[in-house]
């Protein structure tokens, strides 16, 4: 029989996995969209505006999914993990509070102005709104990652009667793993959004879209990826070293090191066996792991045997890490080849378009794999050394959790399908609809955009969203 | 003044404020969702109605996150008790919020033949959210007893909140629409106003009957002379609004904003009465704000932020309402 703990963990994993898909895109997509608007303001070239208008629609949809799944998250702490707030509420509460106060209202309000205000506010105010949304999403990432990092590497607190009390907010926020985790996640978002933008643009071009906007977006996405991919390898390495210092048992699981050894190999593939405490079918580079992690060929790495009963399950961390890194290197390769191919305004080859459009959601898989490594790698702890996951769980009966979990899974599966389906639909519509867009400045200096379609839309019917209002 | 006695009072006031603002703001957009007409011919009306809340709904829902966040920040023990007791209604409310939140966006982007389905989803999601919120409010008042009288009362409260949100949603539409749709909105508002009135009266009678503490508080002399102003004002506001609605719409659309203002006043009065009934208990009959409060150093840390940030939030919220001032007919979703 499944108990409340397992069901709650699965439910939280399902919720947070579903949720993170959307912020991972929007954190960076906001900046990309802001860039499009900025370029339009500078050049007055309508192509930038077309790219902007197409992408804010996708941003709006992605954002909505992030908002609703995020609200769900904020309730789960109380419904499923009451012990979490009772033990570390003094720390988690204010950090979440600052996220709501400084980020959520900012992004929600200015997103409204950004999406609906195009005819109502001057162009500069509109650009400012886009900037505020981008700042809001990034601030949101800042606060939530401060909390998440604190759960991995708690600092700046003392325990009084089993409850954590803050001694230094600075140490709480800038805890040891925070700078690395924040940088790693922001770059991950950049890579995810870059391939997302490039992938959908490539899809449009493959469908025969002759317009310039998707080509511009394709190039923007691939250049961003080409810059970020190597940067991510560098930051990821620093993050790994930081983890080795503070959570050696996680690194031991990631590298599949069962027993402390000198000159540990870098395993490219293996099947970890938790029962026999060994790896099968191991293929590795001799001394590789020691070299990367200690910068010495014969450096000593602690094995899982030193954390008996206190270490995470090995297989998810081990495989998750390899999936993340594998996709990361693939992104690097594709982004560099593509950037070379697109130099000086050249067209992308059909093969490249196919590969890039195939990789539209590659950032999702990589980001999820990475989060699985770090979160499962923290087990059995919820807050390292402070609170175990099993001790925080709700007293609610398993049947209730089972029911809510089933509902969430059904809704999420449907929404994921609807989201991807709608993206395809939007891309298709933007290709087939013949559009005449004119950007004109009206007398009061505000920017007005009239979409004139060859069919259907009469001038009186302005509140009706035109079927093909895409670029 | 920032001591362990005062801080919980400040925070319960802030939490209460967030709940009232949430009920008003998300109340009107949930209400618009509930009132959505589902006939095939009314697609243009649906477009206008949804356009009227388009720029705001996301920020409106954020007040819920703030309210639940403040409860969690300031009263973690109460947060746990409330949310574990309301496990299933919360889950259902969240499903409702998810459905309506995404339907907003999908309806504008989906194929034309799916638009109606998303509109249904939007209406259903709004209803589900509202109903479960009302149910939770009822359960909260009854101290989370899952017996028949409590469930019955919570169901009554669910209908009451549904009526109240339709009331404020209708009043919002009177302000934001024109022509036939506005006339329709006046009818909706008048009917749901009367239903809300019945609901408020019923809850006001049942609450002191089942909670002796509440009864004593309300009818304690000489305070009774003063606090009975709340129901008196509330009663007056209901009657005034009903009379006013019978005369709307007026020439040149005069007073189209007044019903909305009156409903806001009614909401504030009702919540003040509720707060007065239970203060200083944060979980009725179980826990006071001081028992549930978190550490003073944590409360101080967030309070300074709140003092700086909340005025800024109110400023840009006002800015956004100013931008989208006027009738909603010319907004369309991007």
Low-confidence stretches of chain A: 436-471
Helix content of chain A: 55-70%
Strand-residue fraction of chain B? Answer: under 5%
Rounded mean pLDDT score of chain B:
85
Q: What order do the helices and strands of chain A follow?
A: HHHHEEHHHHEEEHEHHHEEHEE
Radius of gyration of chain A: 24 Å
Would you report the number of β strands of chain A? 10
The strands making up the biggest β-sheet of chain A line up spatially as 1-2
Arrangement of strands in the largest sheet of chain B: 1-2
What is the succession of H and E elements of chain B?
A: HHHHHHHHHHHHEEHH
Query: Sheet bearing the most strands of chain B, described?
Result: 2 strands, antiparallel
Mean pLDDT of chain A: 84
Plain-language structure description:
The complex is a heterodimer of chains A (471) and B (334). With 471 residues, chain A is mostly helical. Chain A has one domain (4-254, 314-435). Chain A is 66% helix and 10% strand. Chain A has 13 helices and 10 strands. Chain A has helices spanning 4-43, 46-80, 82-116, 123-152, 169-173, 178-206, 213-246, 248-255, 288-294, 314-341, 350-358, 362-376, 398-432; strands spanning 157-160, 163-166, 261-262, 266-273, 278-285, 300-301, 381-383, 387-388, 436-441, 447-452. In chain A, the strands form 5 sheets. In chain A, strands 1-2 form a two-stranded antiparallel ribbon. In chain A, a hairpin with a 3-residue loop joins β7 (381-383) and β8 (387-388). In chain A, α2 packs parallel to α7 (213-246) and α7 (213-246) crosses α8. Chain A is globular and about 60 Å long. In chain B, α1 (6-35) packs antiparallel against α3 (57-74), α3 packs across α4 (76-85) and α7 runs antiparallel to α8 (179-210). Chain B has a two-stranded antiparallel ribbon with strand order 1-2. Helix content of chain B is 80%, strand content 1%. With 334 residues, chain B is mainly α. Chain B has one domain. At the A-B interface, α2, α3, β2 and α13 of A face α2, α3, α4, α5 and α14 of B.
């Amino acid at each position: 029989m499944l108990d409340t703990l397992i069901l709650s963990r699965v439910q939280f994993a399902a919720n947070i996995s579903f949720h993170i898909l959307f912020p991972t895109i929007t954190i960076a997509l906001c900046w990309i969209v802001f860039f499009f608007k900025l370029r339009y303001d500078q050049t007055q070239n309508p192509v930038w505006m077309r790219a902007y208008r197409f992408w804010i629609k996708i941003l709006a949809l992605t954002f909505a999914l992030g908002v609703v799944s995020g609200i769900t998250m904020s309730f789960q702490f109380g419904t499923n993990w009451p012990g979490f707030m009772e033990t570390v509420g003094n720390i988690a509460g204010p950090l979440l509070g600052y996220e709501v106060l400084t980020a959520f209202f900012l992004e929600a309000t200015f997103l409204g102005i950004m999406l609906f205000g195009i005819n109502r506010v001057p162009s500069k105010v509109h650009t400012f709104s886009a900037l505020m949304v981008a700042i809001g999403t990034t601030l949101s990432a800042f606060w939530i990652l401060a909390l998440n990092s604190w759960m991995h590497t708690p600092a700046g607190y003392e325990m009084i009667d089993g409850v954590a009390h803050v001694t230094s907010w600075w140490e709480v926020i800038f805890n040891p793993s925070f700078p690395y985790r924040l940088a790693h996640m922001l770059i991950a978002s950049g890579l995810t959004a870059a391939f997302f933008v490039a992938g959908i643009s490539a899809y449009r071009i493959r469908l025969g879209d002759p317009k310039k906007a998707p080509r511009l977006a394709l190039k923007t996405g691939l250049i961003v990826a080409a810059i970020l991919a190597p940067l991510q390898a560098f930051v990821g390495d620093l993050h790994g070293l930081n983890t080795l210092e503070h959570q050696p048992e996680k690194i031991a699981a990631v590298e599949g090191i069962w027993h402390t050894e000198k000159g540990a190999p870098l395993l490219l593939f293996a099947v970890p066996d938790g029962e026999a405490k060994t790896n099968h079918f191991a293929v590795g580079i001799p001394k590789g792991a020691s070299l990367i992690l200690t910068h010495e060929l014969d450096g000593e790495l602690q094995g899982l045997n030193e954390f008996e009963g206190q270490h995470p399950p090995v297989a998810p961390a081990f495989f998750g890490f390899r999936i993340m890194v594998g996709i990361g290197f693939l992104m690097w390769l594709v982004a560099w080849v593509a950037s070379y191919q697109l130099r000086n305004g050249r067209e992308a080859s059909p093969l490249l378009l196919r590969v890039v459009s195939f990789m539209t959601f590659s950032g999702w898989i990589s980001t999820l794999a990475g989060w699985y490594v770090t979160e499962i790698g923290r087990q059995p702890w919820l807050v390292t050394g402070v609170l175990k996951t099993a001790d925080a769980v709700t007293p609610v009966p398993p049947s209730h959790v089972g029911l809510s979990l089933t509902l969430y899974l059904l809704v999420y599966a449907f929404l994921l399908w609807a989201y991807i389906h709608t993206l395809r639909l939007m891309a298709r519509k933007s290709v087939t609809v013949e559009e005449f867009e004119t950007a004109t400045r009206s007398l009061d200096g505000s920017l007005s955009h009239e979409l004139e379609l060859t069919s259907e839309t009469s001038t009186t019917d302005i509140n009706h969203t035109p079927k093909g209002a895409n670029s | 003044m920032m001591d362990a006695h005062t801080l919980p009072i400040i925070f319960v006031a802030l939490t209460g404020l967030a709940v009232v603002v949430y009920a008003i703001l998300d109340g009107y957009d949930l209400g618009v969702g509930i009132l959505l007409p589902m006939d095939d011919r009314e697609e243009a009306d649906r477009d206008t109605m949804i356009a009227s809340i388009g720029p705001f709904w996301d920020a409106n829902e954020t007040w819920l996150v703030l309210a639940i966040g403040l409860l969690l920040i300031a009263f973690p023990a109460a947060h746990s008790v409330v949310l574990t007791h309301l496990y299933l209604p919360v889950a259902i409310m969240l499903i409702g919020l998810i459905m309506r939140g995404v339907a907003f966006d999908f309806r504008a982007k989906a194929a034309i033949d799916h638009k109606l389905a998303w509109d249904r989803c939007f209406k259903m999601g709004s209803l589900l959210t509202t109903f479960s919120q009302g149910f939770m409010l009822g359960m909260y008042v009854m101290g989370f007893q899952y017996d028949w009288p409590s469930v019955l009362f919570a169901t009554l409260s669910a209908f009451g909140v549904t009526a109240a949100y339709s009331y404020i949603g209708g009043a919002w539409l009177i302000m934001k629409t024109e022509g036939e749709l506005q006339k329709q909105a006046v009818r909706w508002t008048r009917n749901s106003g009367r239903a809300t009135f019945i609901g408020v009266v019923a809850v006001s009678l049942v609450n002191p009957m089942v909670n002796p503490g509440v009864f004593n508080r309300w009818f304690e002399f000489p305070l009774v002379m003063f606090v009975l102003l709340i129901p008196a004002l509330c009663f007056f506001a209901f009657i005034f609004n009903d009379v006013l609605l019978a005369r709307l719409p007026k020439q040149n659309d005069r007073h189209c904003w007044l019903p909305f203002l009156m409903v806001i006043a009614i909401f504030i009065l009702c919540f003040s009465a509720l707060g007065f009934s239970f203060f200083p208990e944060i979980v009725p009959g179980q826990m006071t704000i001081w028992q549930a409060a978190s550490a003073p150093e944590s409360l101080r840390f967030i309070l300074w932020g709140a003092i700086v940030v909340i005025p800024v939030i109110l400023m840009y919220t006002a800015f956004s309402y100013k931008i989208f001032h006027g009738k909603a007919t010319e907004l369309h979703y991007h």
